[in-house]
From TrEMBL:
Family: Belongs to the ATP-dependent AMP-binding enzyme family.
Domain AMP-dependent synthetase/ligase positions: 18-341
Annotated keywords: ATP-binding, Ligase, Nucleotide-binding
Protein's UniProt name: AMP-binding protein
Annotated GO MF terms: ATP binding; long-chain fatty acid transmembrane transporter activity; long-chain fatty acid-CoA ligase activity
Pfam families per the UniProt record, alphabetical: AMP-binding (PF00501), AMP-binding_C (PF13193)
GO cellular component: plasma membrane
Length: 501
């Protein structure tokens, strides 16, 4: 199965294919737009370099047609994250070997100064539908994930890796041309591509694109587009649940939402409030393993694992008994993991002795249901995105009054993590001034901005001088040191006032 196969199946389809705001493109029109993108890419790409093209854009129709154009031309689309800044974003462009980047006008300034051409994103002139031969194992996308220790890794996503979940989920949920798939999660992430966009394409359904997710706009969009299916990640689902309820919330066409990392209470409330079925799964961009809950799955569980997925002791590699926490490992091989781009060290870390190591911790109950228990590596999960701590620490250490910095996660009240930093100071520092300093750092994205800052005399360390972050994370804000807090979307900090013990 290739994405080209799915596109060709829609080439003569006169039914609505892609909707966006007040636009509507039939599938036949959209595939012609993909053909135009393919012809343009064949003219623009140099044959002496990898055929990689970056995209820096919101969920707009041209994102969809450019991905289709890459499939039809044998090219590779690199999804760039517009929340990254400065050298961090430039590094992603260089690592992924982009010959050029298509960018919406609002994001083009983020690429200023790069020695890579930047072109406006749009639909080129129509061209004949002339797909190049491709195989399921051919590379189609590079999707970045922050990884375990800092800098993002580019995950290799083949035709099959995108087409298969689209076809599988469309079949599993009985989706067809009478359905509308609502995609509001960002398309530079795997969730939107594999659990949303590809599902709509495989089903021949209408794909309704939302430029950027909006909690208040979710239900109006569902009604406007007649959406019957939507994909999600946990925090946005929580945001929708947090909107003020109305008596007619369940009066909508939505019948199914599918995603991952939803908080248990939100899953139940979302289904009850909006009158739909919620299916929560567990997986990663890498695709080495995946879970999906079944009706008999206990609350809070991931479900039962696929054949060969085990929980093993990270030290011995032996299977863990029920209730003992260990690492999730695919003992049968890589699963859908096709490797990282230009990162053999990371490949070797994932694949050891023929096993795929997730870096995620879990435990099992007596009935064989698995439960997520945290992350083996140094990960933060903020608003549905994996963040590494090392890049944040490097930014904090730029301040002349910061001598040491450790970044770690503390539980978010709803789901995932909040970013917390512990600082050892070498000079004067006040909350307002520090917030202003961080706001002016060009490579610190909004989700990387610490929610809490702890001012410590020293950091806990091992005998080999490594910071014991698990101790800091365990104490969280309940420590004897002063803690600064940043409310909402503000960039300024204030002293957190805690009740006396």
């Amino acid at each position: 199965m290739t994405l080209t196969d799915l596109l060709l199946a829609r080439a003569a389809d006169p039914r609505p294919g892609v909707r966006f705001e007040d636009e509507c493109h039939t599938w036949a029109e959209h595939v012609r737009e993909c053909a135009g993108q393919a012809a343009s890419l064949r003219r623009m790409l140099r044959p002496d370099a990898p055929p990689h093209v970056g995209i820096l854009a919101d969920n707009v129709p041209a994102f969809s047609s450019l991905l289709g154009g890459c499939a039809l031309s044998g090219s590779v689309l690199v999804g760039l994250n517009p929340t990254r800044r400065g050298e961090a974003l430039a590094r992603d462009v260089r690592l992924s070997d982009c010959q050029f980047v298509f960018a919406e006008p609002r994001y083009a300034p983020l690429l200023a100064g790069l020695d890579v051409p930047v072109h406006p994103l749009g639909n080129p002139e129509p061209a004949p539908l002339e797909p190049v031969p491709v195989s399921p194992d051919d590379l189609l996308m590079l999707i970045f994930t922050s990884g375990t220790s800092g800098d993002p890794k580019a995950v290799r996503c083949t035709h099959e890796k995108i087409a298969y979940p689209g076809r599988m989920l469309a079949s599993r949920f009985g989706l067809s041309s009478s359905d509308t798939v609502y995609v509001s999660m960002p398309m530079f992430h795997s969730n939107a591509i594999m659990a949303g966009w590809a599902v709509g394409l495989a089903a021949g359904a209408t794909i309704a694109l939302r430029r950027r997710f909006s909690a208040s706009g979710f239900l109006p969009d569902v009604r406007k587009f007649g959406a019957t299916y939507a994909n999600y990640v946990g925090k946005p689902l929580s945001y929708v649940v947090a909107t003020p309820p109305k008596p007619d919330d369940a009066d909508n066409p939505l019948r199914l939402v599918y995603g991952n990392e939803g908080a248990e209470a939100d899953l139940a409330e979302f289904g009850r409030r909006f009158g739909c079925h919620v299916v929560d799964a567990f997986g990663s961009t890498e695709g080495g393993i995946g879970f999906s809950r079944t009706p008999d799955s206990p609350p809070g569980s991931l479900g039962r694992p696929a054949e060969g997925v085990r929980i093993v002791d990270p030290e011995t590699g032996k299977p863990c008994p029920p209730h003992q926490v260990g690492e999730l490992v695919n003992t049968t091989g890589p699963g859908a993991f096709a490797g990282y781009y230009r990162n053999p060290e990371a490949d070797a870390e994932r694949m050891r002795e023929g096993r795929y190591h997730t870096g995620d911790l879990a435990y099992a109950d007596e009935d064989g249901f698995y439960y997520f228990a945290g992350r083996l590596g140094d990960w933060l999960r903020v608003d549905g995105e994996n963040l590494g701590t090392a890049p944040i620490e490097r930014v904090l250490l730029r301040h002349p009054s910061v001598a040491e910095a450790a970044v770690y996660g503390v539980p978010d009240p709803v789901t995932g993590d909040q970013v917390m930093a512990a600082l050892v100071l070498s000079g004067p520092l006040d909350p307002a001034g520090f917030g202003e300093f961080l706001a002016h750092q060009p490579d610190l994205g909004p989700k990387q901005l610490p929610r809490h800052v702890r001012i410590a005399d020293e950091l806990p360390r091992t005998s080999t001088y490594k910071v014991v972050k698990r101790k800091l994370a365990g104490e969280g804000t309940h420590c004897s040191d002063p803690v600064w807090f940043r409310a909402g979307a503000k960039t300024s900090y204030e002293l957190l006032v805690r009740p006396l013990a």
